[in-house]
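Appendix B. Chain record.
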Amino acid sequence: MAYHSDNSNGQVVETSTLLPTSPDDRDNGSAKFSGLEYRSKPSSSGYSTLDRGLRSLGGQHLIDSWVDPRTKLEHRTKHRMKRTLIMVPCIFCLAILLHVVYHWAIHISPWNVQCDEYDDDDKFSELSCLAGDSGFCDVRYDGGGLVSCIDNKKACYRGNKNGTAMHTWCGTACNEHWGAYCVWEAWAHAKELCAGTFSPTTPSRRLASGKACAFHARCESCGSGGKCNKIYHAYYFSRIFFDFDYSANEQAAAALEPPVLKEWCEKWDYPYTEVTDVGR
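C-alpha cells predicted for this chain:
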C-alpha cells in the first residue's frame, strides 16, 4: 500500500501499488518488481512461518515458482519440483524393497539360519560378542525402557533380579558371565527344566576374558533344532531397518517365568514342577 497527499483538499489518500502483470514488467528486473513481495499471502500462521523461513534462506524463487509460476524458468522449476516429489518416495520404497529382498532372499536370514553357517568361530571374539554380552544380565526396572516382555506381557525379562526365573536358573551363570548360554542350555534340556531338575553347566568355549559369547549362545548350547528352535521361532521378530543378526536371548529368558514355562511344558506333555528362587 502507498500514501500520497491530494493537493486539492489536503487530505491523505490511500492507494494501492499493484504488482506487474505483463511478462515484460515481470522480467525486466525493475525496482517495481523487486522480488521481495509475496505473490500469494500464506493462508495460515504455520505456512507463513515456513514461507518466511524459506525466503530468508534464499528459497524465494522456489516458492514463487510453486505458488504462482509466471516465467518459463519458474514453470520449468515447478515441473522439476513435482517430478522430485514423485521420485523421492519411489526411490525410498525401492530401497526398502531391495533391502528386504537382500536379507530374506540373498543374505542368510536368522529365521531359518543353520548354526554351522551362522556360528562362525572366526567371529567369536571379544569385539564381535560385545553387542550380545553387553549388560545382558543387568537388572532392568519397569519404566526404564529396557524390559522385554512376551505373550502380551504375561512374562518379562528383568535381568538377574532376585525373584525372577533368570535368577532361579542362571543366577550363578550371570555372575560368571555366561548367562545367555545358560538360558538356551535350559531350553535344550526342556524336560529337566519342566521337572525342576535342570542344572546349568559351564560352557567349554570361552573368551579370553572368561566370558561366553551371548551372541552365539543359542548355537553353542543347543544348535539349530530341538526345543530351542521352537522357542526361538515363537519369539522371533524381524528388524528390517536394523542389523539382521538377532539372538532372542532376552525373549527366551522371559519365557522361563513360571506362567509361560508351564504353558510350554503342557504343550510338550512334560510334567511341570515350579521351583523356588534358588539362584543356581
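Further analysis of this model is presented in Appendix C.
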